[in-house]
Amino acid sequence: MDTWKKWAIGAAVVVVAGAGTRAAGLWGGSQDSAKDTLNFTFPTPIQTLDISKNTDTYSGTVIGNTGSNLLRVNAKGKTVPDLAKSVKVSKDGLTYTATLRSGLKYSDGSELTAKDFVYSWQRIVNPKTASQYSYLASGVKNADAIVAGKADVKSLGVKADGNKITFSLERPLPQFEYLLTFANFMPQKQSFVEKQGKKYGTTSAKQLYSGPYKFEGWNGTNNKFKMVKNDNYWDAKSVKTKEITWQVIQKPETAVQLYKQGKLDRTTISDTPELYKANKNNKDVVKQPEATTSYIEYNQTGKNKFLANTKIRQALNLATNRKELTDQVTSGISTAATGLAPQGLAKTSSGKDLAAYVAPGYKYDATEAAKLFAEGLKEVGETKMSFTITTDSDSPAGKSTLDYLKGSMEKALPGLTVNEKFVPFKQRLSDSQTQNFDAVVTLWGGDYPEGSTFYDLFKDGASYNNGQFKNSAYTKAVEKAETTDALNASARDADYKTAEAALYKDANINPLYFRSKYALSRSNVKGIIINTTGTNMDLKYAYRK
Q: pTM of the predicted model, to two decimals?
C-alpha cells in the first residue's frame, strides 16, 4: 500500500502491551463506559470504504477491522480461519478450496454467502472498476486477460458451489494464503453495491460490514467517527470492546498532548525528530514494527528530459546521503535504505533478511555523482538543470525530507536547482497516478510478507509504476520469480536480487529509508495486533483491562 497512504498481512506481528495509566472517562464518558471504549487517531483523513478501490493504509485500517476475509492473521503472523472454517490447498498449489462457516451474516443481518467472495474477486479485476489493486489477482485463472479486457469477468477462476469457494490458479502463488486475509478481497454483496452505485463506500452508511466492528458517523469528509461492535459477526463473543472512537489529528504534537491528557490510547511519536526526542523516555513507549520503504520516483515518460537520462538519475542517486538523511529526518529511528525491499518484510530460504540479501550497493559518492551529472547534462545538451520534488504537505517529515534532499543534491551537483512542492496527501496520490510530477517522494508498505509485494510495483505497465519506466531485465527477473521459480524459494530469492540490481543500474527509483516507528501506548489496553504488512492494526481482540 502506498503510505503516508499505507504503512505496511503480517510477517512479524506483535501484540501491543505498552505502558502507562488507566484512561477513564474519555471523551466525557463515565469510568464504566470508558472500559468498553478505546480511542485512536489517524494522521490523515480516510479516503474510501470501497473494498475494491481502497489503496491507503488508514482507509485499510477501517476496512480491515469492519470487514473479514476467509482467513485472518494472528498474533504470530500466521494465517488462521476467519469466515472460512477451513481452507485446503492441492499438492500442486494450483487449487484452493475454502469452506465457509454456517450462518454468516453482514452487519444488517443479511446472509453472507460464497457468491459474495466470487463477486468481490470479479469486481476487483473488472476493468470497469479500475482498481489499482487488480494486479494482486494475477495468477488466478484468466485474471490477467480480464484486467486487459480480453476475457469476461465470469471466466475468472473463482467459483462458488454452496458454501464452498474454489480458487483455480494458473501458477503457484506463494503469497496466496495471505491474499485470503487481505482487505481488498473481503466479501461484497452484489445487490448492495449495485444499489448504492457511485455512492458505494463513500460514507459509513453506504457499506455493509462482515467483520468484528461496524463503522458509523463518517459522512465522507468529516474527521470524527467510530467503530461499534458488530453483533452479527460470527465470532462476536471474542470482541470485548463495544466502541472505538477515531479522530483525524494532522499535527502529531496535538495527538501526543491528547494522549497525555488521557484522551487517546495510542499515538505515534516518531513523526518528527523533536517529538521523538521529547518523548522517547516516556514509560509508555513501544516500537511499532513495519515493512515500509520511502523512495523517490522519477518521471521517466520524457516530460522531463533530464530525468529521462540514465546518467542524471544515477547522479541524483549517488548524491543522496541516505544515512545522513535518515539521521536528520528521523533522528536515526529509521534505517538508510539499501534497496526497494525493506527490512522485516521476508526471509530468504537460508533465513537471511531479504533486504540484506538483495542489496545492490546504493551509496553516497559526491565525486562520482558530479562526474555522471556533467556527462548527463552534456548528453541532453544543457549546462544546468532544474526539477521539482513533490511530497505530502500533511506529512510531518515532508518538509525536512525535501529540505535535506535539496541541500544535499545541490551541493554535490553544480548547476542543479531543486524546487520543493508540497501538496495534500490525496492530491499527491492523484498527481502520482497521472504523472503530474518530476520526482515524488513515496512510501510503500508491503501487503503481504513476500518479495513480490514490492517487486510487482515496477513491472512494465504496472499500475503503481508512476514513473512509467521500462526495465526489461527487471521485469524478466520478477516474472521468472513468479512463474518458473514460484515454488523454488532459493531461485526466487536470486531472481529478486537480479531485479534489485536492474533497478539500481538504471536508477529507476531512489530508495531513501526503511521506516520504523515508535508509539505511546497504554499498558491497560491489551490485544492489539500490529502487522508489518496488510492491515497494520487489528483491533478484533483489543480491550481495556
A: 0.84
